[in-house]
C-alpha cells in the first residue's frame, strides 16, 4: 500500500493506493472521533483513480461489446469503528455499503442497480496470534478477481484435459465429500426421507464437474452394499453425471450406454438431458456421436432418435451460446 498524507484542516484524513477486490485504486480514509475514545474511520474507493479493474461481466458475452468503466456506476464505502492508536488498536464494528449499476445491452432497457450491505461486529477478542500459517498453493493470487479460473473450468468441461483442472484450486478431500454426500443420500432413501435430497444432489453435481474419469469409477464403489436402494441411487448418480455435463462425465455415461450398462429408456432420457448441456463442445458432441453410430442405437429406434437430436442440439448450443467466459479468449464454434 502506497500512502501519502494530505494536508487539510482535518488531520484524520489520508489517501492510499490499495489493491482491493474491486481493483487497484486510490482509497480515501476519513477519521471521525466518537464517544468513549473511539474513532469511526470511513474508507471509500475512488474509482476515478484505478490502475487495474477486474473483468466482470454478467449474461451474454460479446467480442465487440464496448467495455464501460464509468466510475459513476460504482460506489463502495466501508466504515470501521476502532479503539486504540496506530500501534495498538481493535476493530469493533465494520459496515460495508456497495452499489453497482449494471449496464444493459440495449439503450431501450434501463440500468439495474445492485446493492450490497454487510456488517461485522466483534463479539469476543481472544488471544493474539503472532504467527499465521502459510497457505500452500502453487499459483500466486491477489485480491483482484481473475477470470482465469472461470475459463479454465470451462475448458476442462469442454475438453476433459487435466492441464486445465490443474489451474483451478483443488477441493480438499473432494472424494471424501462425495462419499459423504452419496452415503447421506442412500440413508435418506432407506429411511424414505426426501427433504435434503435436492440440496445433496446439487452439491454432488458441483463436485462431479471437477472430477477425473478415474475418480468417477471410484465413486460407484461407494454404492456397493446397499442393494435395496442400489438401482435408485445409481440412477440418480447417472442423472448427476448428465447434469454435470463435462466431457469427462459425458464420456463415462456414453461408455455405459454403449456397453448397455444403462437401461435403454433411461439412456434415452439421459441423452435428452444433454441437449441443454451447460458448457457444450465439439468433444462432447463427438462422444454422443459414438453412441449414435453404435449397435445399441441401431437396435433401439427411440434411443437413436434421442441421440441424433442431442448431437445436433449440442452443436446448436455451441455456436449460439454467448454466455461462455472462454469466448473472450478464443473461437469455440468452427462451423460458423
UniProtKB/TrEMBL annotation:
Q: What are the record keywords, sorted? A: Disulfide bond, Glycoprotein, Secreted, Signal, Storage protein
Q: Where is the Vitellogenin domain?
A: 1-336
Q: By its UniProt entry, which SMART domains does this protein fall under?
A: LPD_N (SM00638)
Q: Which domain of life is it from?
A: Eukaryota
Q: Which GO terms describe its molecular function?
A: lipid transporter activity
Give the subcellular location.
Secreted
Name this protein carries in UniProt = Vitellogenin domain-containing protein
Q: Mention any Pfam family matching this sequence.
A: Vitellogenin_N
Specify whether Disulfide bond is a keyword of the entry.
Answer: yes
